[in-house]
Amino acid sequence: MRGRFAPSPTGVLHLGNLRTALLAWLYARSAGSSFLVRVEDLDVGRVRPGFAEQQLADMAAIGLDWDGEVVWQSARTSLYAEALSRLDVYECFCTRAEVAEAASAAHGPVGAYPGTCRALTDEDRARRRAEGRVPALRVAASGETVAFVDRVLGEQSGFVDDFVVRRNDGAFAYNLAVVVDDGAQGVEEVVRGADLVDSTPRQIWLGRALGLSELSYAHVPLVLGADGRRLAKRHGDVTLREVSPENAVAWMAASLGLAGSSPRDMLAGFDPARVSREPTTYP
Ligand code: GLU
């Protein structure tokens, strides 16, 4: 089950992110599989120079290793363009506020885009362009509910609306890039934080639309701070800048009920079927 970890270099990895990386590594390595790392640096508005290198160094510092060269999404835009050319897409001129309003007025599934721009005529589009609006591209999805079984969370499903595959700033959207890369890199199992489970039905749908093989999924519970909110920088000392790699690994092992002072030591006791569904708190 070839696995991967795909951080976005928008900040320093905190212990929650590192624990997810460790779990992704444990799932892959315990199955004797390869483990890849991909830098998801497409969002130029949020990516900061140096963070990717820091993230890779922090992963290495806690004892994670990976196979082959690290892949950078910013160097792969021709792959995303090629995939996009095979999809049935349409231009969407809606602002965020308009999408939210249209979604609530349509009484459809919560937050789902109701297809406002799907039926625009050429004149409608020309008028919006003349107003200075720049379109995003959305897939004309089937509007079906996609169900899947998650190795940690169990049965999951979600409605697939017409979601964005290229943003109006020209960037290829996260969902498109992830699906194209997982397919191109031969990833078989996606292990990532439970905060991303809502994107999975869209990604499964897109994988099918692009003729890719179906992946297996494990969304691992998040780490919360003492206030019960998702662990973040504002919680203070939560990165390897403040916590030593040894202490970080010791805390991760304890939180997973595993023994050992390195990821390799933890392999012997790791059982994917026993990963808790409950969030963990740090410290
Ligand atoms: N790059 C995404 C993030 O850091 C995760 C991508 C994925 O695991 O699918 O939130």
What is the fold's blueprint, element by element?
Elements: E1 3-5, H1 15-30, E2 35-39, H2 51-61, E3 71-72, H3 77-85, E4 89-92, H4 96-105, H5 122-130, E5 136-139, E6 145-150, E7 154-159, E8 164-166, H6 174-184, E9 189-193, H7 200-209, E10 216-220, E11 223-224, H8 245-255, H9 263-267, E12 280-281
Parallel strand pairs: 1-2, 2-3, 9-10, 11-12
Antiparallel strand pairs: 4-5, 5-8, 6-7
This protein binds glutamic acid.
The site of glutamic acid has 7 residues, from loops.
Account of the protein in words:
This protein is an alpha/beta fold and 283 residues long. 33% of the residues lie in helices and 17% in strands. The protein contains nine helices and twelve strands. The protein has a three-stranded parallel sheet with strand order 1-2-3, with helices on one face. A three-stranded antiparallel sheet has the order 4-5-8. Helix 3 crosses helix 6 and helix 6 (174-184) crosses helix 7 (200-209). The mean pLDDT is 96. The chain binds glutamic acid. The site of glutamic acid (GLU) has 7 residues, from loops. Belongs to the class-I aminoacyl-tRNA synthetase family. GluQ subfamily. Its cofactor is Zn(2+).
